[in-house]
Every structure is written in C-alpha cells, then in structure tokens.
Prior knowledge:
It is built from 14 helices and 16 strands. The protein is an alpha+beta fold.
Amino acid sequence: MKKRICAALLAAAGILGALTGCGGQTADTQAEGAAAGAAVQATVGTWKTAQTLTPYFYEDFLEADGSVEVMPFTNPGDQKTALLAGSLDMTGTTIPTAIAAAAAGEPVKVVASLCNKCSALAVATDSDIQSPEDLKGKTIAYVPGTMHHVLLLDVLRRAGLNPDKDVTLTRIDFFDMGQALAGGQIDAFLSGEPYPSQAELDGYGRILSYPYFDDSIGTINAAMIVTEETIAQNPELVQELVDAHIAATEYENENPDAWLDLAASFGTDRELLEFSADNIELCWDIDEQYIRNCENLAEQMMELGMIDHVTRKQRWSNPLETMEIRPIGAGASSADGGFMVFCKRKRPAARIQTALAGRPAPCIGGFCDRRAGHHAVFRHHAAAPALQPAARGLRICDRNRLRPDAGLCDRAFPAAAPPF
C-alpha cells in the first residue's frame, strides 16, 4: 500500500532551502495532465552505482500506464544541472551538492533520501595503521569538496590530528585510489563504495573504520531533488514519484537480489556487490536525526569554504514536530464541521490536546499509518483560537492526503490557505 508523506515534507523548509515536500513537472501541459489524473510520464536522473539504482524500479510502482525514463549520470553536479535546465523531473544527487546549490540560490528541494552509509576509510593490508590516531605522518588520498572530504576531516579531528600539519592530503580521483594504495603511493583513502570493499576483497587493503558519527554527519549520503518550479506547478506528479520511490526502496530492502542483480548487470562484480552490501543503506525517510546531520554537514561545509553561508531564516523545520490544520469540508465524517489536524507523531490526540492548552476538543476519529503520519479530527470550531498559534508559519498541503479508506473523508479539504 502506498504511503503518503507529502504533508509532512511540505511542512518542512530545508536548510538553505534544500528540504521540502512533494512537487511536480517542468511543463505546463504535464501539470494539467497530472491534475486531470493522467498517467505519470517522467524523466528521472541517477547514477549506475549499487546504492543509487532505486529509480530504475519506479515504473513498477506507478499507476497503470505510468512510465519513467531513467537517465544515468556519472557526476551529481551534472544531474543537478540537468534538473535545473528542465531535462529532468527529479534526480538523485549528493546531500553536499543539494546544500551547495541551495546556498547559491538555486531553486532545488529535497523530497526523499536515497541512500545512507556507503563510505569507508581504507589502509594497506600490511600497514601498521590500526586506528585513526595512527594516521599521523601518513599520506591520505581524498577528493576535495565531496562528502568524503568532510568525513575524512571529521575522522582526523576526532583522532586529535590537524589535517594541515599532522597528515599529508593528496588529491586522487576515486577511481584511482585503489591503485595508488596497492602501489604504495598513499597510506590510506576515504571514499564511497565499492572502492574500499574492492581493496579488501582483492587483498591489497583493509577497511580501518566507517566514518559515521551521530553527533556529526551520521550516515547521510544522497537524496532525491526536484525544483521549486515543479513543486508549484505539479505537486501531483512528484507525489506519485515520491510514492514510487518509497515503494521501490522498500521492495529493494525486502528483495536485495533485485538491486544486486541490476547493479551486476551494469558491470560491477556480483561478489564485490555482496561484500559491500552491508555498508549500503537504501532509504527514503527524513527523520529528526537526518535533519540534524544535514545541519551539521552544512556548518562543516561552510567551515571548509564549500559554501559561504547558512541561511538562518531557512534552518530546518522538523517535519516530525509540525502540525497542519485544515477545515473539514463537505464529505467529511463530521456533519457540524471542525478542523483536521495532521501531526506526524505517535498519540496525536495527546499532543494536540497539549497545543489546545487543555481545552476540550473531543477526537471524533483518526487513523495511524507508521509511514504517512498520524491524524486526528476535532469536532468543534471553538478549538480554532487555541489552534491558531500552532498553524502560524506552516504550509498547508495543497489537497487532503487522508486516504479514503481511513473512513474520515475523500478529498474533503479544499486547496486553500490556512483557515486562520
């Protein structure tokens, strides 16, 4: 069953404007077609790496006659450029690329995560390096301005090492790091999969550590982005793509052979894929920890000069902490009107009662979907004054997203501004 996450994501303004919710296509005719219920026709960009193949499964989870053309790229920056040029409706990219784009004023928005983890610090098999502290005086390969650059500096700082004085950082492309390690030109490298696993599987290297720290960047890696224009023109299309992304991700996680076989068909050795799979997390969700990690990444990118500012007025608004308030219209289960409150939290009635400062507002119905969030409907218009503070600053979803089988309504709420 499809999960609807548009409301929670639409309520979130991203760090540097990078995170938001569901949006649509690039052409007006596509927007009109989607609004009329036409089958989805979309073009989505990604890489042909094991951890970024989810878009290749989208078409299996669209409505009948929907289709997705997947365009493969080799560089996340090129994917973002194609998106802004209108050649793509949605694309994968790295989180640093999305943050840098938004910091530069480019109108991109993250609508789902794509993959986490996928990074490792590798050293030579016979090296005397047994911990990050042993990297002092060593030569380490890196690619400037990447997620792995930031992760490497985090590892060094936690080991008490000054990256400018205690180690030698040398720029080497990811594709060439393994050869440099095997040939003794470097002592270590930090990169994405499959290169660290390749070094260990081929016997010339071993993985020293995985650079994941919850109090810093954590495991975040890549995400799916759209443009602000497509969000404004066609939220229905991107909602369908986000739904397909969620369903495809869960399918991959439940059927790992599906994405491993696909990755192998693109030329990566199957044994290597299986070896590296434990360091690959396919994902779609954006939770509180993810948001904190992205904030930390943006701060570190600014320290490195990768971006020149973090826009404070657009700092993350946690979607798990937001509530959306919409009027109950014709067709809702409550004949005497009231307000529907969306709250992506457990026990929404208790949380909303707190927002009401103890005023009575009996819940007349609701349902819980662990992915889509939690909903409660309150009967009385009298609740409006108390709910007003909770509504300030929130963006209301363009249409009701309660599923018809929830028994509460079927698109009962108009696409209108907040009722207050």
